[in-house]
Amino acid sequence: MAATQRPMSLGHDLPRVPRRYGQWAGAVLFVVMAVLLAGWFWQQKSDQRPVLAIAEPVPAGSVITANDLEIIEVSGVKGAIPSADSDTVIGSTAAVGLVDGQILTRDMVTADPLPGPGERVVGLQLEATRAPAGLAPGDVVVVIAVPPEGDPSTPGNLDNPTVLAPSATVASAAAIEGAGTRLTLVVPEPVAERVTAYVAAGRVALVQAPAGGDE
Fold it and tell me: Locate the SAF domain: which residues (predicted)?
């Protein structure tokens, strides 16, 4: 009588994979990631340098004092003024409007007073349709006379608007929610009074000029 053969189990013929292999692999991966992350944080921290920042708002044209400054540590800010150079900043003039927390760079300050000789500073607030969005300190604009709000005027007036200032520099600009843009302009002294009068009458609009001027 033939002997009965027992069915072959495929499971007994294959090598057993340790049940904890997946857990070990996960633990090793976690450790590697933790080491890499710690190295990244260390690198970021080691790249930081103490630089000067603004502690209190400083309007364009104002003299910067020690109380206006604070020291923070940052990395990767091109042109940031090192805290060790604070003596070169204190007593200088803000070339543009400065706000809380802003990191100082050399182009934001000047040794010359603002406005300079032959210049005047004019403040104005314009609705969105009368000033380009996104104006920033240093931008150059053309100041033109426009009809007051609600006045349709005539085609002749609209086709040949009066230029009040062919070149004015934005010293500060701030968007006011629901109320347009508040600006400070540096204009040539001969036209400052006329520009101010048109501003008061609500008859000013701005056109942004090319950064390098028209060729």
Answer: 49-110
Rounded Cα distance between 3 and 16, Å, is 30
214 band by pLDDT with thresholds 50, 70 and 90: low
Q: Which domains does the chain have, with CATH numbers?
A: 47-110 (3.90.1210.10), 119-208 (no CATH)
Query: How far apart, in Å, do the first and last CA atoms of the chain sit?
Result: 111
Residues 6+ apart with CB under 8 A from 190: none
**What are the structure tokens assigned to 88, written together?**
């070169």
Integer angstrom CA distances of residue 164 from 120, 145, 201, 206: 14, 6, 14, 10
pLDDT of 161 higher than 80: yes
Of 190, 210, 214, 209, give the one whose Cα is nearest residue 122.
Answer: 190
**Phi, psi at 182, each rounded to 5°:** -100, 125
Q: Which residue has the tokens 């042109």?
A: 79
Q: Which residue has the higher pLDDT, 57 or 19?
A: 57
Summarised one tens digit per residue, pLDDT across range 106-117 is 878 877 777 778
Alpha-carbon span 62 to 129, nearest angstrom: 30
Beta pairing class for 109-110 and 119-126: unpaired
